[in-house]
Amino acid sequence: MIQRIQSVYLLVIVLVTSIMMFGNLKISSGIGMGAKESETIVNPSEKITYDIFMNKTVFDLNNDNSRFEHKNNLITYSLLIALLMALVSIFLFKNLALQLRLVMFNTLFIGLVNFYIVYQKYKVTNLFQSTFDSQTYLGFFIGLSLFLFNYLAFKGIKKDIKLLASVDRLR
Known about the structure:
Layout: H1 5-22, E1 26-33, E2 47-53, E3 56-61, E4 67-71, H2 73-90, H3 96-127, E5 135-136, H4 138-170
Helix pairs in contact: 1-2, 1-4, 2-3, 3-4
């Protein structure tokens, strides 16, 4: 029997963030028509297919089969920090206050990843006048599941702190 279920939740966070970092998870894709007047990346008459992955955004121009990529470094660095914080938190079971603080800060970086995913999708669909045939993929929902597991780990740590405080009162 597992005595500390929050360690399992933190291990799931480590596994999921490593899959998000090193896997090629697609966040969204779509088809748009050229750039708006304020942006001069592409000709307004060109049809563009775009794919947003966790670590890069790929644009394909259908007229001349050219392609260019944009790296999403903020997502990669935030995922790396969230991965390291969850990994360190697993081994801090002796210092519950520090473990609780690390899990709370981990929520900040997970939120940054999810915010940037939504921002990337909105920016690209707005930039290329995309129709609503864009699809949301597994990467976005996996990012939201990180919040769930982080919350469950937080609740488990709080429960341990409460249990230790009650045991100290009995002595």
